[in-house]
Design goal:
This protein is an alpha/beta fold. Among the domains are: 144 residues, Rossmann fold; 62 residues, Alpha-Beta Plaits, CATH 3.30.70.860. A six-stranded mixed sheet has the order 5-6-7-3-8-9, sandwiched between helices. A four-stranded antiparallel sheet has the order 11-12-10-13. The chain has a three-stranded antiparallel sheet with strand order 2-1-4, with helices on one face. Helix 3 crosses helix 4, helix 5 packs parallel to helix 6 and helix 9 packs across helix 10. The structure holds adenosine-5'-triphosphate.
Length: 314
């Protein structure tokens, strides 16, 4: 609370961090609200780690405003550390230590009393409580990292690429844990290179590129704002594309054997198919497509944002 007002767990505005000529973070602004999962996405070198390290109080900003749980994380490093949980990229631990022992060790470092079994249940690792770290699978090791990040009952969790390198089943198991943490009201900041993971888990997403935020909002909002909308795709020739365009007036693009028709109105798909039929030309598979967060991400970070909202076929 700040003067009786509820403070968002994270508030950043005009944050900058330069390393010499490299503008790692170049004037970004975002807010993370209590209880939400917020995903920070971007290609390698976009500035995500620098941003997260500033939030965790590990790196000093050059300028701008940063508030974590109402505090400046650099000036109030100790207080912030006591109230956040962090799981770093590729979590590692002493090989001959079990999850239960590790939790007890962390609890003594934080000087808190914890119920190790309850934490292990929360991360779905109770059956491996006494297995040594070097005998855990990749996914179980990550769960142990999650368990340790919960020892100090944090208000805010930072999960840095929590499923990198895991097989699809192990990734899903971690997703289940993260959903459980969210259901308990924890605020989570997630970085990931898996766009489907961000789409599955997060309430809101910020996409960074070259130190800037290039899109921010729910996945659906970002797709609606930067995507090319729904389209009908027909495997066919350029001649077929010309025919559909000239007889219907629809927005038709052709690329590499695919005729793509932008669907704006309810009847557009039917109109296009009737035109295709009347052409007496051959065509193959037909499908409707809508951009995923992945499609939009690729366009945004490669600088081919579709500002006009017109259809583009990649
Ligand atoms: P990744 O997905 O690869 O982890 P990232 O989005 O986390 O990338 P950062 O690690 O924040 O990006 O790096 C942003 C830019 O700052 C990059 O150009 C990087 O080379 C540079 N950079 C990061 N740390 C330092 C440093 N300590 N000294 C100099 N340059 C740095």
């Amino acid at each position: 609370m700040r003067n009786g007002e509820i403070v968002n767990p994270i508030e950043i505005s005009d944050l900058r961090k330069y390393y010499g000529d490299v503008k790692a973070v170049d004037g970004i602004k975002f807010t993370v609200k209590a209880g939400e999962v917020f995903a920070l996405l971007g290609p390698n070198g976009a500035g995500k780690t620098t941003t997260i390290e500033i939030l965790e109080g590990l790196r000093r900003k050059d300028s701008g405003e940063v508030r974590v749980l109402g505090m400046d994380p650099w000036e109030n490093g100790h207080d912030v550390h006591m109230r956040i949980g962090v799981i770093p990229q590729e979590f590692n631990f002493f090989e001959k230590t079990s999850p239960r022992e590790a939790i007890r060790l962390y609890a003594s470092l934080f000087n808190v009393k914890v119920d190790a079994d309850e934490i292990l249940r929360e991360v779905l690792l109770e059956d491996k409580a006494d297995t040594l770290f070097d005998s855990l699978s990749g996914g179980q090791k990550q769960k142990m990292g999650l368990a340790l990040s919960l020892v100090n009952s944090p208000d805010l969790l930072f999960l840095d690429e929590p499923t990198t390198g895991l097989d699809p089943n192990a990734r899903r198991a971690i997703w289940e844990v993260i959903r459980g943490l969210k259901a308990k009201g924890r605020t989570i900041v997630l970085t990931t290179h898996y766009l489907d993971e961000a789409q599955q888990l997060s309430d809101r997403v910020a996409i960074m590129d070259h130190g800037h935020i290039v899109a921010q909002g729910t996945s659906d909002e970002i797709i609606r704002q930067h995507g090319s909308g729904e389209r009908l795709e027909i495997n066919g020739s350029e001649g077929l594309a010309d025919h559909i365009r000239s007889t219907t007036g629809l927005n038709v693009h052709y690329d590499s054997g695919v005729v793509a028709i932008a669907l704006h109105k309810k009847d557009d798909a039917l109109t296009a198919l009737q035109a295709a039929k009347s052409s007496n030309m051959d065509w193959g598979d037909i499908r409707t497509k809508r951009d995923s967060l992945d499609d939009v991400f690729v366009r945004l970070v490669s600088g081919i944002v579709d500002e006009s909202g017109e259809l583009r076929v990649r």
